[in-house]
Write a structure and sequence with these properties.
The chain is of the alpha+beta class. The chain has four helices and 17 strands. Strands 8-7-17-16-13-14 form a six-stranded antiparallel β-sheet, with no helix packed on it. Strands 10-9-11-12-15 form a five-stranded mixed β-sheet, with no helix packed on it. A four-stranded mixed β-sheet has the order 5-3-4-6, covered by helices on one side. Helix 1 packs antiparallel against helix 2 and helix 1 runs antiparallel to helix 3. The radius of gyration is 18 Å and the shape is globular.
């Protein structure tokens, strides 16, 4: 496993410094991005039930706000980088079963040139997150985007009308909650293959669903989300041909 990941690191260095040089002109960004990508892959790589190494396919790259490009450029960056990561993993026989998706987000606590990466494994998503096989138009027209919502402080309704919703304390998040215990970039909700999932973005106070701390979790109507003590309730209206009830678990 270590030898394969060492090979992936060498491939990422070559690809990022080559084909992506025009998109990431700063050598400082090259070094930080490569190092943090391989660290995220190493830390989250797990053997599956057959003992075959499994690596994450969902990545959020945090950069200083001054280095976050406009929307269309960001899509190009994410698309190229998704392809680069996939090619590096494929060359070492570590390509994940689901498509690679990459999202960029701003973090003012980072210095210029620094990056931070959160990685998870999951099924395909879309929207501004870029993948080597995505259909953004289909996602933006998904019927669930007009059916799901969050209830904040038991009275404020926030519609989940985008395939990716970021939640945190800093302005610029899709849902800004000005509570000191909430991290600047705390959590993210994604529409993934007809289901909403919540991801913790390395927050200090943690993300909880029904009192259980999670890194990632599928959401069902009535789920109680706690972001470092701030409560939100996930709701979703019924959609034809979709079961939105939580499956029963054996005790």
């Amino acid at each position: 496993m270590k030898a394969k990941l060492d090979f992936v690191e060498a491939q990422l260095q070559r690809l990022i410094e080559g084909s992506l040089a025009r998109l990431f002109p700063s050598q400082q960004v090259h070094a930080s991005l490569t190092a943090n990508l391989i660290q995220a892959i190493r830390q989250n790589a797990q053997p599956d039930k057959n003992g075959v190494p499994s690596v994450p396919n969902l990545y959020t790259i945090f950069m200083h706000p001054s280095q976050i490009a406009a929307s269309e450029v960001r899509k190009e960056l994410a698309g190229h980088l998704s392809q680069t990561v996939y090619e590096a993993l494929q060359s070492a026989d570590l390509a994940p079963s689901h498509p690679i998706h990459i999202t960029f987000a701003a973090d003012p606590d980072l210095k210029t040139g620094e990056t931070r990466i959160a990685a998870q494994a999951g099924a395909a998503t879309s929207g501004e997150t870029q993948t080597i096989q995505t259909n953004g138009k289909a996602a933006r027209g998904h019927p669930l985007l007009s059916k799901a919502f969050l209830i904040l402080h038991t009275k404020h309704i926030f519609p989940l009308d985008k395939p990716i919703i970021t939640i945190g304390r800093q302005p610029g998040n899709d849902l800004t909650i000005e509570e000191p215990q909430i991290s600047r970039l705390h959590a993210q909700i994604r529409l993934i293959e007809d289901r909403f999932f919540i991801f913790d973005l390395g927050s200090t106070g943690g993300t909880f669903v029904n009192e259980q701390r999670i890194k990632q979790q599928s959401l069902y109507p009535g789920d109680v989300i706690s972001l470092a003590g701030t409560t939100l309730i996930f709701g979703q209206d019924e959609v034809d041909n979709q079961d939105i009830t939580r499956p029963m678990t054996r005790k």
